[in-house]
Amino acid sequence: MALMITDECINCDVCEPECPNDAISPGEEIYVIDPNLCTECVGHFDEPQCQQVCPVDCIPLDPARPETQQQLLEKYRIITAA
Question: Which of 12, 18, 21, 75 is 20 to 30 A distant from 36 in Cα terms?
C-alpha cells in the first residue's frame, strides 16, 4: 500500500527530505504523498522513513491503495530503473 498523510499533519517538514523516492511534497494545507512514487521505502529501507520521523504519527497506510510487497518492489525497480 502507498502511505498517506492525514489531517493531523502539523507541517513540520521532517518527512519530505526522508523520502528516497521524492514522493512527499507540500500540499495546499498539509504535506501529501504521491501514491505513484510511494513504495513504503521498499528497496531502500526496512521501514518507511517518513513514519519513523513523524512526530505526530499521521502517516498510515492508504486503504484505498492496497499493494503487495512484490508490487512495491516492482514499483521501486521502475522508479529507480534498477
Answer: 12
Does the pTM surpass 0.85? The reply is yes
Alpha carbon of residue 44 to chain centroid = 12
Per-residue DSSP letters for 43-66?
A: TT-SS-HHHHH-SS----B-TTS-
Asked if residue 37 lies in contact with residue 23, where contact means CB atoms within 8 angstroms, the answer is yes
Query: Could you tell me the pLDDT band of residue 82, with boundaries at 50, 70 and 90?
Result: low
- Among candidate residues 6, 79, 12, 10, the one with its CA nearest the CA of residue 40: 79
